[in-house]
Amino acid sequence: MQAIQRSKHCLVTGATGFLGTNLVHQLVKQGWHVRASGMHGSETRYIDHLPIEFVFADITKPEEVDDLAKDCDVVFHVAGDTSFWKKQFNRQRAINVNGTVNVANACKKNKVKRLIHTSTLDVLGYNPSGGSYDEKSGRYNFNNMGYNYGDTKYEAEQKLRTYESETLEIVYMYPGFMVGPYDYTLQFGRVFFDLKNGTLPGLIPGGGSYCHVKEVANAHIQAAIKGRPSEGYLCAGMPHTNLPHAKMFEHMAKALDTKAPKFGIPKWAFVAYGYACEMISSFTNKAPDMNPGQARYMACPQYAISEKAIKELDYNVPNIDTCIHDALNWYRDNGFSL
Known about the structure:
Elements: E1 9-13, H1 18-29, E2 33-38, E3 53-56, H2 62-65, E4 74-77, H3 89-109, E5 114-118, E6 132-133, H4 148-160, E7 169-175, E8 177-179, H5 190-197, E9 207-212, H6 213-226, E10 232-235, E11 242-244, H7 245-256, H8 267-284, H9 292-298, E12 303-304, H10 307-313, H11 320-333
Parallel strand pairs: 1-2, 1-4, 2-3, 4-5, 5-7, 6-12, 7-10, 8-9
Antiparallel strand pairs: 9-11
């Protein structure tokens, strides 16, 4: 295993996203020399004041990726497309699968020592019984749901496994349901606004393994320094943050000093809502609020255990109210109406 020191040079793809922004801030704070990249036209305001080199690049185009990794010891491949708009599924596969292959090729071309690949806890599936799972017991079982994001992230990891070698070490990160600052694209943060505006029709089924985005970012850095090659690390929750989505929404509503909906939405109705949203989007040509695959996915009980990352990467799982308040404070400090 090649030791990576904190002062080394690195590339962060997807640096303008939720996790990417947090990771860039933490890397700079810890003394890394950072080259950051984001999709053309992406928002840079939350990192452009930092002492970094920023490059716009489309990772689906090899000619734009090849030189990004030049002179880098570590590449943090965080870029990914989380859309659930059926119209964008081909683009999503191009980014999540082909883009990952392009990044891996760039790493080999530029003799990068270590690639930290941001995957998702989704590639480890869920426990249908409602119990917890870890890196050993988890298996991908979201196939045939129409959940394209999960399908593409799983496919990307299978392809990336073929690139593992003595010259390129790859470590796989599996973040859970992240909450915290810099969620300006409203990945999960949209729930805050739906609760505040009273537009959430009911409490959705299923459950998630919630975590703090800053802790996930720090675990990525530790993975670069001391993670074991070819290993995967769940950076999700523990029993105290593995919650039904309904319970999480109630915590969020309390932090907002408002009320969560009283009624739960059954799975069949949630999936039907996804179909309705998808049909409407075909007329409006705008991204739907939900689609049936995403609804089926969200209705599953996803309760991961992150003990391995805690032991090996100094990962921490704060209580759920800390995660919520840190996110809420960031929105308020940055002019969002909450």
